[in-house]
Design a protein that fits this description.
Blueprint: H1 3-16, E1 20-26, E2 29-35, E3 38-39, E4 45-50, H2 54-61, E5 64-70, E6 78-88, H3 91-100, E7 118-131, E8 139-141
Antiparallel strand pairs: 1-2, 1-5, 3-4, 4-7, 5-6, 6-7, 7-8
Length: 144
């Protein structure tokens, strides 16, 4: 993949992170919910959540996830990340992601990043399916 395609994927994800949906597995049943991922320039993808959430319990049973980013309202641009979620216990990393989040995590975790309920998920990417327009066709990116 060329660097301009990779940058286009990152741009789409960053522009649409308010319209993202995470799918986990509850046994053999997929479960989808809205999330607000944090996307970094190096294509690292993070999701913050509550330790006691159903998604964390589901990820502990089966870490396979799918994360979809969709441009609103047209859906013209879209990125689907297929991979595995990893629970990150490292406090330094949790604080780093807390600082770069584009939204106020204090509204969910008023005691700050050291609260027991604050859970950080890293999405380890296996494959990305994406498009920059409806007519441009679907493309695939696999990290090396």
């Amino acid at each position: 993949m060329n660097s301009s395609d990779k940058q286009e994927i990152i741009n789409i994800m960053m522009e649409t992170c308010s319209y993202a949906y995470l799918a986990t597995c509850d046994g053999d049943q997929p479960v989808v919910r809205p999330v607000s991922p944090i996307v970094e320039d190096n294509l690292s993808v993070w999701v913050t959540t509550f330790n006691s959430s159903r998604k964390v319990q589901q990820i502990k049973q089966n870490p396979k996830v799918c994360l979809a980013f969709v441009e609103q309202p047209s859906g013209d641009k879209a990125v689907t990340v297929i991979g595995q979620a990893e629970i990150i216990p490292n406090m330094e990393e949790k604080k780093r992601i807390w600082e770069i989040a584009s939204f106020d995590l204090l509204q969910y975790f008023p005691e700050g990043p050291e609260t027991k309920e604050y859970c950080l998920l890293k999405i380890n990417i296996k494959k990305i399916e994406w498009r920059d327009s409806w007519t441009g066709g679907q493309k695939i990116y696999k990290p090396s």
